[in-house]
Amino acid sequence: MSEIERRGDAHGPGTALAPGQSDALPEKFENPGLPAHRHRMGDTDPKAAKRAERQVATMLVLSMIGSVLIIVAYVGIQYDGSFERISLSTKAIGLAMFLSLFCLGIGAVHWAKTLMPDDERIDYRHRQRGTEAERAEAVAILKEGADEAGLGRRPLIRNTLIGAFALFPIPAVFFFRDTGPLPGNKLSTTLWEEGMHLVKDPEGGRIRAADVSLGSIVHVLPEAIGELEEIEEAGSTVLNEKAKAAVVLIRLQEDRITQKSADWGVDGIVAYSKICTHMGCPVALYEQQTHHLLCPCHQSTFDLTQDCKVIFGPAKRPLPQLPIVVDDEGYLMAERGFDEAVGPSFWERG
């Protein structure tokens, strides 16, 4: 086999190099260099730079106006219960929010494209921590970049940028504030108290311990809910109390319950708050084989065989357990109320 044929085999079957062609790699590639720099109008024409500065400032001012219009639409368009009013408010807020976000983004992009330096530079790789001289040089480069951004030399852009960023988050204050009053320590108290019977939700009716089958899940409420619903003046109070007092009732195999569940339960029947300790969603999914309770909102998973300890998801606290007993007729009732606050863990707790 000739030398040319042997070299051809190195490139693949049936491939041969032309006479005089070498497959040896060059020792060094030539530096192709940087392309010729193309100057922008703002780099060479002061009037163009000033015009671009005014355009950026205009975009930022429009963003400020959009932020103000969000608040105006939110406060000025009051709900009257009609779909048309809700639709008008939603569209007005959406359009104002679009104006605020779009103009803020366009202003930032236009600023970067027309006024910030666009020189091509080469940065060579080096050790993660440089020498003191290199670190000092990096600080100098950052300062140089800040100077080149023109915030000091372009007060119009600087001031309108500050105004746009200052006004932009203010509408969020209105949105979050309108989600309702903070619960304070109200989550520490529910309708559950000593001797309160458990009733099915929503059909009602007391629950006998003997009727709770192995592996089943029953959604229950305190019997006092029925009395509260009869009070016409209660209004939203009924819904608030239902939300706090919702409980799931489950019967486990006796060999899967903990000492606490044995002390606080009845013959393997345990009761836990239905309200997820992450964001307050209803924990209503039960995996019978794994004995896990799941929250459908953010997938927090609670293990019933470990006193509803969190084993997956964003929740940080086990579901509060309701201690239960049976009366003389075999009906389940609360031994006392919850020993800890129900619901999300990020609220202040008494």
TrEMBL record:
Residues 264-333 form the Rieske domain. The chain crosses the membrane at residues 56-77, 92-112, 156-176. PROSITE patterns: RIESKE. The keyword Chloroplast does not apply. Its main location: membrane. It is found in: Cell membrane. Keywords: 2Fe-2S, Cell membrane, Disulfide bond, Electron transport, Iron, Iron-sulfur, Membrane, Metal-binding, Oxidoreductase, Respiratory chain, Transmembrane, Transmembrane helix, Transport. This is Cytochrome bc1 complex Rieske iron-sulfur subunit. Belongs to the Rieske iron-sulfur protein family. Iron-sulfur subunit of the cytochrome bc1 complex, an essential component of the respiratory electron transport chain required for ATP synthesis. The bc1 complex catalyzes the oxidation of menaquinol and the reduction of cytochrome c in the respiratory chain. The bc1 complex operates through a Q-cycle mechanism that couples electron transfer to generation of the proton gradient that drives ATP synthesis. It is a multi-pass membrane protein. Residues 1-46 are annotated as: Disordered.
